[in-house]
Amino acid sequence: MTIQQTLNSFRTGPDETGHFGQYGGRFVAETLMPLILDLEKAYTAAKADPAFHAELTSFHTHYVGRPSPLYFAERLTEHVGGAKIYLKRDELNHTGAHKINNVLGQILLARRMGKTRIIAETGAGQHGVATATACARFGLKCVVYMGEVDVERQKPNVFRMKMLGAEIVPVVSGSKTLKDAMNEALRDWVSNVEDTFYCIGTSAGPHPYPMMVRDFQSIIGKEAREQMLEREGRLPDSLVACIGGGSNAIGLFHPFLDDASVEIFGVEAAGHGVASGAHAASLNGGKPGVLHGNRTYLLMNEDGQIAEAHSISAGLDYPGIGPEHSWLHDTGRVTYLSTTDSEALEAFQLLSKLEGIIPALEPAHAIARAVEIAALKPKDHLMIVNLCGRGDKDIFSVAEHLGGM
Amino acid sequence: MTTRIDTRFAALKAEGRAALVTFVMAGDPDPSTALEIVKALPKAGADLIEIGMPFTDPMADGPAIQAAGLRALAAGETLHGTIDLVRAFRAGDQDTPIILMGYFNPIYIYGVEKFLVDAKAAGIDGLIVVDCPPEEDDELCKPALAAGLNFIRLATPTTDDKRLPKVLSNTSGFVYYVSIAGITGAATPDFGKVATAVARIKSHTDLPVAVGFGVKTASDAIAIAKGADGVVVGSALVDMVKRSLDANGKATSTTVSSVMALVSEIAAGVRSVKK
Predict the structure, then answer these.
(1) Within an 8 Å CB–CB cutoff, is residue B44 touching chain A?
(2) How far apart, in Å, do the first and last CA atoms of chain B sit?
(3) Residue A193 and residue B62: Cβ atoms within 8 Å?
């Protein structure tokens, strides 16, 4: 595409007004505007402060267990008979997913800003658990907004958050899922402007969140890059990651965006199929609009009313996507595919049986497409799939779908 | 360029009283009842009318206005329908200012240029779009001003003196002061603090200042009207719509009259404050 040819780098965004091309921005109520400007200032200062990075790195090493391994999935590779498939094992992190990478960064920032009360939205509960964990670690008050529907289908995580001392607020407005949890968290923030820090779980929301969350998650791609150079002596040929809001994906992709030889694939949740209308594939089945503080691809009707997303995976069940992904989609740098519920269930079982790794349903979406792409590649093609979460939380719902196996 | 909003505030200033600004949701509980409500408002004492554009995800609104929006959407309201509502109102009222209030996405999807043309032609005078702060003025604010509409901005307790000029820079018609850091229909404001804030804003601008969020009763309105040029009532009115509905959520014979009774009561309060 012409846009791609004229860009010197894909890694310089966002611009100073928080835009990636036409996407992103700061579409928030005036009450919140001074708060996000303060946050931007505080983050810019922290980013330039070696002490902040040293503290974060120390927690990565001793609390989260980073670096996460880059694991050669030998039996999966044999099974597919194509590319060499590596898994970036972020499911081994403390709390079982990549979410903790971002949460620790934001919580350390909240402490620097003197905030004492943390709020978060959560869908599957992984971001809520990570936030509750970090708040327990630092003695901060934690309130997690979770759609009533998700509270019901993610009970183990609700219990974990409660054990960690968080207050869970079931959200009964709208569709009672992740987007409504985010609305409710924003309403809380508008009402508690003095002491509260809003810890957003994905690379979306008003500037500076998409940039900040991406920066904190980029540890995934930085490590993977070094690990692959060490293991194979060269860069990978392709990357694959699942996308809800897209924080694990942008974390893996961002350090590789300017390596033209690296093919990059994002995988959205197609639910019952993009043509069915019951899906969460904003790029493949939506159009640009404005929600939750940013312009990005959204699922909506012809009147601009936001549609309810559907995915078997609560973590991908969101009608939007981070603005940087919208831009990477339009520029053509990243190819965005999708995986249906049933394909994800198959991939979930495949990885469990071949590698002894039960993935979360979210990365099972990535595995499904990765296997297909890998089959078409030569044996010296190096692929990294981001295994961004483990499947413990999903075993009951998967068992239900598979007829109580 | 003078709009109906400018004319109305100037007239009320000459009369020596504050304006009553009423908010109701387009299409709530159904499009035809909503039109009856809007038509009845001026006679009940509304000086300016804000009409909510329903949206699925109203992040600055409390439960009352959220529910009103969902009732309207369930009854089939669209942004086209909202513009039609104003056109129908204008057929019988050329003077009462009409302001549309809501969120950006439905306007963005309608198409900003087309929306502004259609809104102006229908007799809409101003816009309040909650999620378009000054930082995003190129999106809607500047095109709206160029199209001859007022763009009314929200100033809030978090808008400090340093930021206020930025908020006021492209504001016209009036300034909407949000009396609390919170959502619509929430806690009753501290009237002393509100008076201080209104005075602070007035030291920065000659525009009228109207105050809303948390104004529920005639006595709240009286307290606000002492210092402000306008009092905005919204959640209390849409709550009254809700209370008038039957068990199936349909309008009843008391829907319009019960809303008007509350408007009259609050209007009497506002008019009792002489300046």
Answers:
(1) no
(2) 27
(3) no
Q: What is the ipTM metric for this complex?
A: 0.96
Instruction: Tokens for A93, please give them.
Output: 């992190």
Q: How many inter-chain contacts (A to B, CB under 8 Å) are there?
A: 118
Segment (H or E) for A267: strand A263-271
For residues A96 and A91, what is the distance between their CA atoms, to the nearest angstrom?
5
Q: What is the CATH number of the domain that holds B49?
A: 3.20.20.70
Known catalytic membership, residue B15: no
Would you call B61 a catalytic residue per the annotation?
A: yes
CA B202 – CA A235 distance, rounded (Å): 61
Q: Which of A17, A190, A305 sits opposite B181 (nearest CB)?
A: A190
Return d(Cα B161, Cα B179) in angstroms, integer.
Answer: 16
Cβ atoms within 10 A of the Cβ of A307, count? 20
pLDDT band at B246 (very low <50, low <70, confident <90, very high): very high
Using an 8 Å Cβ cutoff, are A233 and A220 in contact?
A: no
Helix (H) or strand (E) holding A144: strand A141-147
pTM of the model: 0.96
Contact between residue A220 and residue A88 where contact means Cβ atoms under 8 Å apart? yes
Amino acid in position A214: R
Q: What is the mean pLDDT of residues B237-255?
A: 98
Map residue A266 onto helix, strand or coil.
Answer: strand
Residues of B in contact with A28 (CB under 8 A): 131, 133
Q: pLDDT by residue (tens digit) across B17-55?
A: 999 999 999 999 999 999 999 999 999 999 999 999 999
Whether A230 contacts chain B with CB within 8 A: no
Q: What is the pLDDT of residue A6?
A: 61
Q: Which of B158, B184, B235 to mutate to test the interface with A (most CBs of A within 10 A)?
A: B158
Q: What is the mean pLDDT of each run of 10 residues along chain A (405 residues)?
A: 65 96 97 97 98 98 98 98 98 97 98 98 94 98 95 90 98 89 96 96 97 98 98 98 97 98 98 96 97 98 96 90 98 98 98 98 98 98 98 90 76
Q: In chain B, at which residue ranges do the beta strands (DSSP E only) sit?
A: 19-25, 48-52, 98-102, 126-129, 150-151, 154-155, 175-178, 209-212, 230-233
Q: How far apart are CA B27 and CA B10, in angstroms?
A: 31
Cα–Cα nearest to A140, from A103, A175, A180, A170: A103
Given this model, what pLDDT does residue A1 score? 43
The B residues from 110 to 129 touching A (CB cutoff 8 Å) are 110
Task: Give the largest CA-CA distance in chain B.
Answer: 51
At residue B187, does pLDDT exceed 90? no
Whether pLDDT at B13 is above 60:
yes
A35/B contact by beta carbon, under 8 A: yes
CA distance A308 to chain B (A): 10
Helices (H) and strands (E) in chain A, counts: 17, 14
Domain with B263 in it: 4-267
Q: Please name each of the domains of chain A with its CATH number.
A: 20-60+99-213 (3.40.50.1100), 65-96+218-401 (3.40.50.1100)
A172 and B67 Cβ atoms separated by less than 8 Å? no
Phi, psi angles (nearest 5°) of residue B26:
-60, 135
- CB of A97 within 8 A of CB of A390? yes
B50, B137, B220, B229: which is the annotated catalytic residue?
B50
Given the residues B61, B125, B137, B239, the one annotated as active site: B61
What is the distance in angstroms between the Cα of B15 and the nearest Cα belonging to chain A? 32
Residue B186 falls inside a structural domain: yes
CB B155 within 8 A of CB B164: yes
Tens of pLDDT along A61-90?
999 999 999 999 999 999 999 999 999 999
